[in-house]
Amino acid sequence: MENTNAQQAQFVKMTQTPIPRLIAGLAVPTIISMLVTSIYNMADTFFVSQLGTSAAGAVGIVFSIMAIIQAVGFTLGMGAGATSSRLLGQQQNARANAVASTAFFTALAFGLLLTVFGLLFIDGLMRLLGATGTILPYARDYARYILLGAPVMACSFVLNNVLRAQGRATLAMVGIGLGGVLNIGLDPFFIYTLNLGISGAAIATLISQCVSFGILFSFYLRGKSIIKISARAIARDAGTYGLILKTGMPSFCRQGLASMSTVALNVNAAVYGDAAVAAMSVVGRIFMFILSAMIGFGQGFQPVVGYNYGAKEYGRVRQAFWFTFKVGMVLLGVMAVAGFFVAPQAMALFRRDDMEVIAIGAFAMQAQCLALPLQPLIVCCNMTFQSVGKSWQATFLAAARQGIFFLPLIVLLPQFMGLTGVQLTQPLADVLSFGVAAVLAVRFFKELKVLEGDVGASHGAHALQSR
């Protein structure tokens, strides 16, 4: 009875609380957890960069492996999260439990497979991901521990996303945030105090990921989550797996293509030496930090859209979209201006004694800042389509930025523009993706208007029948 009351209270909160207050309440802890995650990623890059340019390049190489783990974790986590959010909005809680449990144990199985095969073929994998001869030893030492943590990392993404999907963003923040803070503290201790070098950074990441997983999983064990994770709830029908994968496919495209684009970027940058690989790696981490605020705000907005779309509160869906878009424009607009003017100084924080790294990275960073204000529409559209079950639109948009546009550009532009082509690929891909998002947004709001009309007509018919 107590659990039923909690579920009903959460439903009322998600479908009746004023939109600005609801999204802000869910987004603040999500933004904090995203920023902490980005900060510890930057801390890894910063501390490792002090070991040399080749070590800094190794972080960019191994990031491709982390992107693969994230691709699977986010695919299953976002697929389960968005689906369970709609199911909770429809008050189908047992079905939501089955979806979440299925995603969790699937992530565990994938993580174990990646660990085994990644460690068996680690040298060949590093070369495939773009490691040069001088970067390879560093990449191997770093990747070994990241691969060991693959099962924990993949499962943590599922637990985190399912918590957020049910409106428990603060709990998700605690789990991810504490692990991130621990990582920042352990980095210098393992790298310098214990003299473990780049392996120390990887060990710090592994330990922090295990701590985050333990905290997140404890919330499910202690009944802090509406949704329950249990091996007995694992679905035995192919339809549930298909629904999770279909809903999560945009995340797979976004994260999977992020891995492919990182590999392509590293391979093309390697033509111009370790300095180019290191510079683009640092720029990638900086923009991961900048975009984390927008993505965090968008993730606070996602469960609001899922709940209200499932409850047929279409006016609230529209209001949530435009509120998030406007806040995002202000947020990223300020960051774009600031980032453009401090680009050389930002790069110098990582490799102060390597002027080539600073010059290459500063130009790439300034170019990406020019395209940064386009991101709010891309993020809002992607997250909206995923939350309301428009998987193919979300998948296409996710694939556009780092696949459909990025991959051809990273192959073609360097042939005509050299290193400048490498630096301009991401901002040009963002401009083209913005155009796609604008077209899809117009279509979606036309459809939403029709749905609102249908609901209004239905309510009118019920009112006449009751007289």
Automatic annotation (TrEMBL):
It comes from the Bacteria. Pfam families: MatE. Keywords: Antibiotic resistance, Cell membrane, Membrane, Transmembrane, Transmembrane helix, Transport. The chain crosses the membrane at residues 22-43, 55-77, 98-122, 142-163, 170-192, 198-221, 282-301, 321-343, 394-416. It is a multi-pass membrane protein. InterPro entries: MATE_fam (IPR002528), MATE_MepA-like (IPR045070), MATE_MepA_subfamily (IPR051327), MdtK-like (IPR048279). It is found in: Cell membrane. GO terms for cellular component: plasma membrane. One of its GO terms (molecular function) is antiporter activity. Its main location: membrane. GO terms for biological process: response to antibiotic. CDD domains: MATE_MepA_like. NCBIfam families: matE. Belongs to the multi antimicrobial extrusion (MATE) (TC 2.A.66.1) family. MepA subfamily. This is Multidrug export protein MepA. The lineage of its organism: Bacteria, Bacillati, Bacillota, Clostridia, Christensenellales.
